[in-house]
Design goal:
There is one protein chain. With 165 residues, this protein is of the alpha/beta class. The protein has one domain (2-164): Isochorismatase-like (Rossmann fold, 3-Layer(aba) Sandwich), CATH 3.40.50.850. Helices cover 34% and strands 22% of the residues. The protein has 5 helices and 6 strands, in the order βααβαββαβαβ. The protein has helices at 11-14, 21-39, 59-63, 115-129, 147-159, and strands at residues 2-7, 43-49, 88-92, 107-113, 134-143, 163-164. The protein has a 6-stranded parallel sheet with strand order 3-2-1-4-5-6. α4 links the parallel β4 (107-113) and β5. It is globular, with a radius of gyration of 15 Å. The two termini are 18 Å apart.
């Protein structure tokens, strides 16, 4: 079974406190990709960047002093039209989720935000844990903090044997 991992397609990363026009532009592509996986009976997992009221006191908050994805806020929610009833959602407090080893993956594709932070982090963790499976990223379904950093992250992933579709 193939698995699609939808990384942090949350309101704050799309058009909220850390949103970009590039993030807005990929929403429909991501929706179509999710629909394709669901139609084929494949697994879809969503991650949700999750912070709390003390965000500015955390290490990340000191390096990225923009309040975002505070649990329970509109910005923390996954974009309407992407999420579906019964979806598997992982709340993660950091860039990369460290529990991927608990999954039984045969093939993984990642999409979402931001290419140059959370997508690359999760792709590298998964590739390190499962070096013999196909791990891929669809660049048309990802956006970075900037177009340049998006491209740099894609190059990094290619160098680490992650397929860029």
């Amino acid at each position: 079974m193939k698995t699609l991992i939808v990384i942090d397609m949350q309101n704050d990363f799309i058009d909220g406190s850390l949103g970009t026009k590039e993030a807005v532009q990929i929403v429909e592509n991501v929706r179509c990709k999710i629909d394709e996986y669901r139609k084929n009976g494949d697994r879809v997992i969503f991650t949700r960047d999750t912070h709390y009221d003390d965000y500015m006191d955390t290490n990340e908050g000191k390096h990225l002093p923009v309040v975002h994805c505070i649990e329970g806020t509109k910005g923390w929610e996954i974009r309407d039209g992407l999420i579906f009833d019964g979806a598997d959602i992982i709340n993660k407090p950091s860039f990369g989720y460290t529990g991927w080893g608990d999954y039984d993956f045969e093939e993984v594709e990642l999409v979402g935000l931001c290419t140059d932070i959370c997508v690359v982090s999760n792709a590298l963790i998964i590739k390190a844990l499962f070096p013999e499976i196909k791990v891929s990223v669809d660049p048309k379904c990802c956006a970075g903090v900037t177009p340049e950093s998006h491209e740099a992250a894609l190059t990094t992933m290619k160098m680490c044997q992650i397929e860029i579709d």
